[in-house]
Design brief:
It is a single-pass type II membrane protein. Interacts with ASTL. By secondary structure, the protein is mainly alpha-helical. The chain has a single domain, classed as Lysozyme. It contains three helices and three strands, in the order H-E-E-E-H-H. Strands 1-2-3 form a three-stranded antiparallel sheet. It is globular and about 45 Å long. It starts with a helix and ends in a 14-residue tail after the last helix.
Length: 111
């Protein structure tokens, strides 16, 4: 079980390395899929873009993930983390956050 602070640290690290905290970030892949929003959520499985018959597990349009109001993005990210691979779906997590001391991300913050 991850504490509330631990969950915050995970999201902050992931958001930084996935998009540089850019809620409007869209990365276009060679296969026509996109990675969307602050967490760079992929249209291959999680959201709907112009690709017909994609799974759309989060039941939302990829454009919904570009909103500075992060409600839809957080809902989708939570669905992803509940899948068997969890945070491992994100390359940014695997390469930059997993197994690292993330407390520096909130150093100086008063909780």
């Amino acid at each position: 079980v991850v504490s509330a602070l631990g969950a915050l640290l995970i999201r902050v690290c992931l958001a930084y390395f996935a998009s540089g905290f850019n809620t409007a970030a869209v990365d276009h892949e060679a296969d026509g899929s996109t990675n969307n929003g602050i967490f760079q959520i992929s249209s291959r499985r999680w959201c709907r873009n112009l690709t017909p018959n994609a799974p759309n597990v989060c039941q939302m349009y990829c454009s919904d993930l570009l909103n500075p109001n992060l409600k839809d993005t957080v809902i989708c990210a939570m669905k992803i983390t509940q899948e068997p691979q969890g945070l491992g779906y994100w390359e940014a997590w695997r390469h930059h956050c997993q197994g690292k001391d993330l407390t520096d991300w909130v150093d100086g913050c008063d909780f």
